[in-house]
């Protein structure tokens, strides 16, 4: 199957990752090479995404910044100055911010494509920039990174080219708890570039006591897909030498949010859920009152440990208002077209920022 921009599709795989390596034995270099070589390129970052970002340069509202570069990876997992069919020697990493940042306005951070295969995270971030960023720039300084993981975007993969989950790589020193579904992984070029960029100050003097940029809100845009169970969980088990689990978990049918237990903000989460409800359906809890095996704290919201300790992108800032969104693009319901998935991401951002304008500025 060939994927196109704006569509979440199942990856076309030459070799299922669960068939790679020896059962019960973690992958070595040969297995990682085989995995990478059998992940087919199915869409193009340079034709699908980069032109949309470059078009924003023409808007007086935005400044487009290349904050890093991801080199292509050789068979021995080394960074190389190679080229693909685009003729580019590497993946340029882009951030878009509103111009004329003011220390009198709070800072908002939006990330998409940390998991490159989650299309509405990328397209939703770009749609927000085109359609709603101007309105909210009256109240906030806004920074958006639409596609953190271009390699994963092109190959419709959760991991980066080295077989590491970027959304577990933002705190490689975090504690690993056996049996927990959320555990930190090794640092990646994707996370290192983003962290370095944030530490640069983004051209503003408004910093916290640690000398880092102060944020009021961080929204990390994601999807939960059927392939999380059919491909990516078996891949993780094979990679880590874990027993192959034949029991598939239940994928929530609808939108939900991930709440950091150290910053619950229940009214804020309600505002986002109600905004999204106007666009698409909210995921109901399963028979055990959970979603993806996690405790539901309120309708459409799961609560997990501190996101920074888990290495999640949504824990990379000190923002008191922080969450990970989860759209379900594989739903058979009529309220979940690709366009509605993108719109749901934007609706969540709107609900989040409207609440902060009305309430958060006073807290």
Task: Present the secondary structure layout.
Elements: H1 29-37, H2 45-48, H3 50-55, E1 62-73, E2 79-80, E3 90-98, E4 107-112, H4 119-131, H5 133-136, E5 141-145, H6 150-155, H7 189-199, E6 217-223, H8 227-239, E7 256-260, H9 266-277, E8 290-291, E9 294-298, E10 301-304, H10 307-310, E11 321-327, H11 338-358
Parallel strand pairs: 4-5, 4-6, 6-11, 7-10
Antiparallel strand pairs: 1-2, 1-3, 3-5, 7-11, 8-9, 9-10
Helix pairs in contact: 4-11, 9-11
Characterise this structure.
By secondary structure, the protein is of the alpha/beta class. Helices cover 28% and strands 18% of the residues. It has an eleven-stranded mixed β-sheet with strand order 2-1-3-5-4-6-11-7-10-9-8. β8 and β9 form a beta hairpin. The longest helix is centred in the last third of the chain and has 21 residues, at 338-358. The protein is globular. The protein starts with 28 loop residues before the first helix and ends in a 5-residue tail after the last helix.
């Amino acid at each position: 199957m060939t994927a196109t921009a704006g569509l979440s599709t199942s990856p076309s795989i030459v070799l299922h990752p669960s068939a790679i390596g020896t059962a019960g034995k973690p992958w070595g270099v040969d297995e990682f090479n085989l995995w990478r070589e059998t992940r087919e390129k199915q869409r193009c970052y340079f034709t699908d995404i980069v032109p949309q970002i470059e078009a924003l340069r023409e808007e007086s509202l935005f400044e487009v910044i290349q904050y890093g570069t991801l080199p292509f990876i050789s068979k021995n997992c080394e960074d190389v100055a190679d080229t693909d069919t685009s003729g580019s020697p590497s993946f340029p990493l882009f951030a878009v911010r509103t111009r004329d940042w003011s220390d009198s306005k709070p800072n908002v951070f939006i990330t998409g494509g940390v998991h490159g295969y989650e299309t509405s995270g990328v397209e939703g971030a770009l749609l927000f920039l085109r359609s709603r960023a101007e309105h909210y720039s009256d109240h906030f300084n806004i920074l958006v990174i639409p596609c953190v993981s271009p390699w994963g975007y092109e190959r419709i993969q959760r991991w980066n080219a080295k077989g590491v989950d970027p959304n577990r790589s933002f705190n490689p020193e975090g504690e690993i708890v056996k049996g927990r579904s959320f555990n930190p992984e090794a640092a990646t070029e994707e996370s290192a570039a983003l962290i370095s960029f944030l530490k640069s100050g983004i051209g503003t003097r408004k910093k916290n006591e640690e000398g880092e940029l102060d944020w009021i809100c961080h929204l990390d845009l994601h999807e939960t897909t059927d392939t999380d169970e059919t491909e990516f969980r078996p891949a993780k088990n094979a990679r880590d030498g874990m027993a192959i689990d034949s029991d598939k978990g239940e994928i929530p049918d609808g939108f939900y949010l991930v709440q950091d237990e150290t910053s619950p903000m229940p009214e804020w989460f309600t505002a986002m859920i109600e905004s999204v409800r106007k666009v698409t359906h909210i995921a109901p809890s399963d028979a055990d009152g959970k979603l993806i095996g996690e405790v539901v704290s309120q309708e459409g919201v799961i609560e997990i440990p501190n996101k920074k300790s888990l290495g999640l992108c949504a824990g990379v800032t000190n923002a008191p208002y922080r969450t990970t969104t989860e759209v379900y693009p594989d739903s058979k319901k009529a309220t979940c077209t690709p366009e509605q998935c993108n719109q749901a991401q934007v609706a969540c951002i709107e609900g989040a920022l409207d609440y902060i304008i009305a309430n958060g500025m006073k807290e």
